[in-house]
Amino acid sequence: MTANRTSLCETCCRIPTRVFQSHAALYDDRRKLLEFRAPDLLMSAPTCSFCSLVLNAVSARLQAQNAGPKSSQEVHDLLQTVEWWQTFHVEQNQNIPKDVRSPKMTGFVTWTHSNLTPPVAISLQAFGLPGSAASLSASVPEGLALNSSDCKDAFQLSKGWLKTCLLEHKRCRQTLCGTNLSETEQSEMPHLPSRIIQICSVQQGESHRRMIFNTSLVESEGMRGRWVALSHCWGPSRRHPLKTTKGNLHAHRDCIPWPSLPQTFRDAIKIAYMLGVEFIWIDSLCIVQDDLEDWKTESSSMGYIYENAILTIAASGAGDSTEGCFLNRDKTSQAMEVPFPTKEDARGGSFFILPKETTGGPDSSVLNTRAWATQEWILSRRIIHYMRDSMIWSCKTLTQTETGRFIPIRARNNTWAAIVEEYSNRELTLVQDKLIALEGLASEISKTRPDKYWFGLWSGDIPDQLFWFARSKLGKIHVADVPSWSWASRMGAVRFLPFDMEGGGWPRTKPLSRKLCGTSTLEDNRYLCLSGLLKVVPALAKTTDQWSRNAFSTYTERIYRGPLYDIRSEAEEGIGWCVLDAREVPTKPLLCFALVQDYVGDYDEGRFFFYKVLILQAGDPIGDCYERVGAGCIFTSSWFADVETKSIRIA
């Protein structure tokens, strides 16, 4: 880590001294503490540590904007022309887990008020080195600002994260179904995956960066032990990684040549070795890729593999396997070293300030766009994300940057609706993998549920999991075995209509819990049998501006990018709305199938009843069989007054 010793200009010297010192954790001041013009910032940055830090952070933020300046000179020219007032206050950490002891203060926030559009806001973070007076005093978090993810300090940090989690985090020893894993006694460790890579030996080069490893693919045959798993992007077909095939399976059992391994695999093997783990599981090498039966068998075990691994290494910043885990970092940001007054000067008596990571964390990484990573991240009890500019630790207890900052992460949300919404928004190369890529996760979740798993839905959550709709145009999936009532029958991002309708612009709601569908059953492993109110849709029309402002469409409008349709009665009155699964209105007659009656309002204000409906079209004319083409709401409850409950099948 490189650092600039503190040297402040006249303006920055007016920052209250206590902000930079031991009581900063108790200090929270949102007044304007600092004010200067942008040209002044440019002039003082070469000699003032804090101005330099702010300028670097502002430049990075401006260049990250879509229409912003693209070079340092353009940033300089822009800042010369603006009137810019800078405010400054201490930031409190809002993401500390309840059972983790950590300082509340993690840094500072600066806001700009000027003619810049949009206005710029930057955040700085404070941390102390491990064992320093600052971190031991609990004034600032303990952390490091690393120049590389491949340096000795980085590996020490990784070891520390893993050791702390193994010793202190009880939640991280549990699987999704609540089984406690033993990770210390060899005889009680999980069984190794059926096929796994063994790190046999290492040839030490001139430094730890030049290690060459001897590896082979072994059949575990019931052995127990520790392993790490790799989560990575395969990239386009021309850059697909080394694979195990029928032709090289026997050769890989003897030895996997080091030169043939792509950079991501080499880096992951090195990380495993440095953490003291002998085995690593990599999908392209541990599954015979041109053997369909082997692929089906091994892919169904991926839930077990990622959940029981002691750690998952996520190459989150790499778009394909050639890029590696140890990506080149931006060297323009240097930490500002601030004196830390103490009676007993421990390890330098200082702490550091650095711009917060601007990558947005794992949620905004390139790996997060990969559908297969969904179950890998949710099932993994511990992950180290190798980002473009930092390393991030994420376990069931906490998610933390290398500088000690705690951050939230969406990938740990394991409600099924949230999983499907996240998963459906990710990229999937092969449409036939739509359900297979969630099979391992569904298998583990099934151990915690009494109901059945039907084509991406849980039978106990019907009918609410039937009310999915497109976030944008959906493409019909060309897999004959996926029925239309499943979200997996379409390619593209979906969202679920909230079952209780709370939030999202809807009026206050109390659930009535009146389900019209009765007990759902599945016939011939395809046809969903339900009861409800069925009625022909007289007419559809694209929503008008007046209708768009109606509270009932507010939630859907905010997350749906396609057209909403009015459902019109025989008298051409608006009685509800719907979202179609495809942009084109079907040519066949459409029907509303009401499965749930709900209401908005409360006892004092009065209730307003409405129906949640599926939009269907006739399918097989024999046996009352229909096909789903959309979903929506009927808010004129009297429209179904003359309809009796009917049982139908949806294919």
From TrEMBL:
InterPro entries: HET. Residues 227-376 form the Heterokaryon incompatibility domain. Pfam families: HET. This is HET-domain-containing protein. The lineage of its organism: Eukaryota, Fungi, Dikarya, Ascomycota, Pezizomycotina.
